[in-house]
Structures are given as structure tokens and as C-alpha cells.
Design brief:
With 111 residues, the chain is mostly helical. It has a domain at 39-100. 45% of the residues lie in helices and 4% in strands. It has three helices and two strands. It has helices at residues 2-25, 39-56, 67-74, and strands at 89-90, 99-100. Strands 1-2 form a two-stranded antiparallel sheet. The longest helix has 24 residues, at 2-25. The chain is elongated and about 75 Å long. The N and C termini lie far apart (65 Å). Bound molecules: zinc ion (ZN). Zinc ion binds next to loops.
Length: 111
């Protein structure tokens, strides 16, 4: 009886290891390049993209970029970050921080 349990135990461990290795090595390519980033980190990435866009295109702090304008500065594939909690981002002017519509999300004003 003990042998059966040992064999079942090792079968389960092997199955778990196979599943984990398949997830790590195989088709586990993140579709969201911002995966793991908090909302505030995403807002900072968006703000950095706005600043770089403004520098490259000689814009002032009062200019308002569109998502299309800054998507090349956000990620290699041009994905637009989405709030992990489901908030909606507003770009705003170059001179102000981007905003998230989710209550309590946002970059503190002194940063
Ligand atoms: Zn958010």
C-alpha cells in the first residue's frame, strides 16, 4: 500500500513539474508588456513617454499628445498601458501628470 502512495506522489510531482516547465518555457509570452507594473508605475511610464514625445517634436508644456502620438514611446510594440484595476487613463497636457479614473490612483503631486 505504501508503494502505491509513493508512486502516486512521484507521478503528481512529475505532473506539476511538467506543467510548470511548460508554462515557463513554452507559450508563456506576456501579452501585456506592462504586466506586473502597478498603476502608478504605468502612469510614470506614460508621463515619460509624453516628455520624450514633447522633446522630440519641440512641443511645449501646454501641448496635449494623443495616444497615437506617444504609443511609440511606451513600448516596443506600441501597446497602450491599461490600469490593472480597470481605471481609464487620461493623458492631459505635457506639463501635467497623466490621470487614472480609478479612485485613489494617481501620481502624488510632488513627484
Ligand atoms: Zn489606475
Amino acid at each position: 500500500m505504501f508503494r502505491v502512495f509513493v508512486i502516486l506522489f512521484f507521478l503528481c510531482v512529475t505532473a506539476v513539474l511538467l506543467i510548470l516547465s511548460a508554462a515557463l518555457l513554452g507559450g508563456c509570452t506576456p501579452k501585456d508588456p506592462f504586466e506586473g507594473c502597478s498603476c502608478i508605475t504605468r502612469l510614470r511610464i506614460i508621463d515619460g513617454a509624453k516628455q520624450n514625445w514633447a522633446l522630440d517634436h519641440h512641443k511645449t508644456t501646454n501641448d496635449v499628445p494623443t495616444w497615437y502620438d506617444i504609443r511609440g514611446y511606451l513600448s516596443r510594440r506600441g501597446e497602450i498601458p491599461v490600469c490593472p484595476a480597470g481605471g481609464v487613463y487620461t493623458l492631459g497636457r505635457v506639463g501635467e501628470q497623466p490621470k487614472c479614473s480609478y479612485p485613489g490612483h494617481g501620481v502624488p503631486p510632488d513627484q
